[in-house]
Amino acid sequence: MSNFRLPLGFLRHGLTLRLLVLLLSILLLPILQLPLSAPAYASEAAAVRVVTLSNDSTEALLALGLKPVGATRSLNGEPWYPHIAHQMQGVTVVGLENAPNLELIASLQPDLILGSRQQSARLRATLERIAPTVLVRDSRKGWQQNFLIFARALGQEQAGLKRLAEVQARIQCLKQALHQQPLRQVSVLRFNPGQVRLYQRDSFSGELFAALGLTRPASQNVHAYGVNNFSRERIAELEADWLFYFTYSARRQQSTLLYREAFMSDPAWQQLSVVRHNRVRSLDDGIWNTANGILAAGVALDQIPQLFSLAVPEGGALCRSSVKD
Amino acid sequence: MPEDKWLPDRHWRGAGLSLLLPAGALRVLGLLLLVLALVSLLAMALGPLWINPLDLQAPSPLQQLVLFELRWPRLLLGLVVGASLAVAGFVLQSLTRVSIAAPSVLGLADGAGLSVVLVLFAGEALWGGQLLSPQGMALAALAGAVAVLMLLRGLSRRDGDLEKMVFAGLVVAAICKALVSLLLLLSQSDMAMQAQIWLVGSLAQANPALNRWLLAACVLLLVMTLLNYRALALYRLSDEVMGSLGQPVGISQRWLYLLAAGLTAIAVAGAGQVSFVGLVVPHLIRRICPRGVPAQLIGNACGGALLVVAADVLARNLFSPYELPVGIFTALIGVPCFLWLYGRGGRS
After folding, report:
1. In this predicted complex, what is the ipTM?
2. Residues A113, A124 contacting (CB under 8 angstroms)
3. Is the pTM of this model over 0.90?
């Protein structure tokens, strides 16, 4: 027990400790002096190599006739959503939207990185060291503005405005067609594993429906993304002229399908007049909900005449775009 | 010999640095450091781009970028987070004398996490989504951890029942978890997804600006903990022994709890919540390095760093290009090691 006797022993061990601290700080010195080189941006003259961290930015590139060198995997895709897969051959998968592989991105030596803050804000400092980075606020909200931000970042503002104007013209055309029929209120929800989410106006589908001049039931006519854990007791609030639903699509989605079946066999659901009139439609979760891009918007608009049983003129499609994707 | 009067005591020759770092412990620590160095080299070398860090005459700009901007900050953050969590766990286990005490069990990590999420949401509401600086994040985490600590100490003040305090910690941890879930569910904002990533635990956001602060704070707190080895050694016996030896119980206790909270906050601010390190590593180190508090402290710092860095190497490379949260692998590596060592200890 001699260590515990004061004060001489303490001083002795104090010396040991001081030596240790000295040793530690010597070990730490090289750590602090490691060179932190300046961001190594590639030259701007070269062909633009872009890495996209969110699907809306991927679609912005494709819509402008460009192709990313690397992109994060589509949420429901293997690895790409079907509607963009044919344009994505040879593109490197750089991880998931919420966990991109920074090293892989660096090794592609991009000139520009596009993405969204809602997914990538915490990585911004590191991304900036790889290449100039442009992040939109939230992919799920304001897809038209987001598209223009990406177009501007790519130096293609005019082409972007033109592309967007085409889509807006189609929306106006479809809006007029929809106004010629009486059923204009839509309800939107999503079957997630073990829960239902009600969708509101500040979502991709919400913005599309609003642009098409369609209205929403009161609980959905709110400027917000949506409501999680939508209770069965509130099924009556879903009443509308049309009821659209997405289904969370993972590879093994059996439990979600069973949950959907149970939800739809609820007596309250069966009593909805929209159900009784057979105006419930399933929408593709990728196109209408998770892709968030301008190409997905185009595909969604293609589906409108059929979804709302609009009269299609002889021999032609209703409000089709003149430009092929 | 002229060196003789230099040396701490006569145990130097062949018997270790001193009574505090006996030869056996030195061997174990040396081995731990060696393994840590090897795994760190591996962490620098492995990735989508294979780089041999020992063979770098003229690194290309890309190699420089990957090594110094991506892998090095990440490795450093892993070292800091692992060392902080393990030492915090060791200090808490010593103070409470409860073997399951750890930053995550006592609710310190959850309190820090809740605080960070709250500040994230407040920042979103007040400054239009300006992401907080790393320093702000670290301070928020510290505030959360200290708040939980004060709550626990207040609860157990009347009877000083340490077991009760650990139990209260479990309860507080559960409440913090529930509040975070509630916040995430209620929030409409895009912050929810970011907050979620914070809570899972990941080293991906490592960057030099963040590391500079966390490293400085971590070294400072580790050295301060090391300087308190004497009080820690006595707490491992009991409060009475401590009082009878003339150590002021209350002051050093408060100080050590604060150090543990600070270390937890560093880890949470750096990487979110990384599970199992603070719980498992102190037990592992006790098995392989049974002697002396200073040796154990250093061993915990090395062991925690080793576990987190090794877990991150796996998390980054196993399913490339997809990265997994590092917390999955700290549990997957740490728990089997722990069970194996425990089983072995039981037989001998």
Report:
1. 0.79
2. no
3. no
